[in-house]
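## tool: complex_structure
## caller: assistant
## args:
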Amino acid sequence: MHEPNYDSFKRYSRQILFQPIGKNGQEKLKEKHVLIIGAGALGSGCAEILARSGVGTLTIADRDYVEESNLQRQQLYTEEDASTSLPKAYAAEQRLKQINQSIEISGLVTDVTPEVLERFSDVDLIIDATDNFDTRLSINDFCQKQNIPWIYGACLGSYGISYNFIPGKTPCMSCLLEQIPLTGATCDSEGIIAPAVQMVTSIQTAEALKILTENWDSLRTTLLSFDLWNNERSEIDVSVLKTDSCLSCGANPDFPYLKYQHQTKAAVLCGRNTVQIRPGSPHQADLSHWESVFQGLGYNTRRNSYLLSVSLEKPYRLVCFLDGRVFIHGTNDIQKAKSIYYRFFGS
Amino acid sequence: MNLVINGQQKSVSEHIRTIEELMNELKLNPQLVIVEQNGQVIDKQSYSVAPVNEGDQLELVKFVGGG
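## result:
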């Protein structure tokens, strides 16, 4: 039987035949490093396409773990990943390595803070696949500071939106938004259909391929949105919104969202009835120690190599991660979540 | 009043005078929406005074967070 050599460019032959990419573009892709922030619906889709396309180095970062309700749209995950509560970044890395073994792929189980971003100042592109504007505005400032292009993408219901933020050329996210929008209410209530996800990932990855193969003239310059259920599509040229006094991209930038005071220690997770608490100083948690502590207190626990789940008094449940983060499930109230956290983990 | 919103013909209440009132009717949060009216991007600060007129072509793009 013919044993294919997966390291060769043969696997990319159809993409190389596509004239704007060609052999030259394929070689460029191999040299590039893309950071994908978020391994949920958009992150899964973007990562799979970029891995199949032959981007040389992919890093995918996520703070969450796989649950049953993800399977409807998060294409990298299986029922087994959900039943074993695998961290998404880890499950994604495993699956992507099965898809393409000839590229570098690493999954990072972490909350993406400005400190984490600092480790990626040499990436060629950041794909936004997060579910919140706190992280997006940190990405925005980081990319302005380091001169890295990033591609915003988001979806809700049957609606999707995307924009290419190119430092020095386009307005930045702070120019477009002025302040952090409160989005908590929306994702809880409106749901999401998979085609909206796929549409956004297609738009994001098409633009990514243009950037990575340096086809700058083909880049879309508009803010694009669509609604697949209501058959609407809209594009706006927002270049006039670039603001010279902007603190993220203006003449005297201050990068406010990379500063300590803007970082939330406790965050409500989009659509999850869950609050994440991040300790002030990151540390490796000893999960087996905590498992015995909670069992000693009479709680039921479940543990894998990456996390410890503890069933508390109904409706609460907490999940401890190796990097010291804790999810408090069963509430959207940060104060309530903190009080549960401090009952067990002190201050 | 008849408007073209995101490429589609829409009929909205006659009493609507401004972009902000239109957003209220469409249940959109002005803070999250970028508006282009007849090819011109409207400054966010002026949504409460910018007039809406019969036949206007509007593009409304709202930011969402989900991913």
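## assistant note: The first helix of chain A runs from residue 13 to 17. Chain A touches chain B at residues 38, 40-43, 128-133, 153-156, 159, 161, 176-179, 181, 183, 186-187, 192, 223-225, 227, 231-238, 240-241, 270-271 (CB under 8 Å). Handing back to user.
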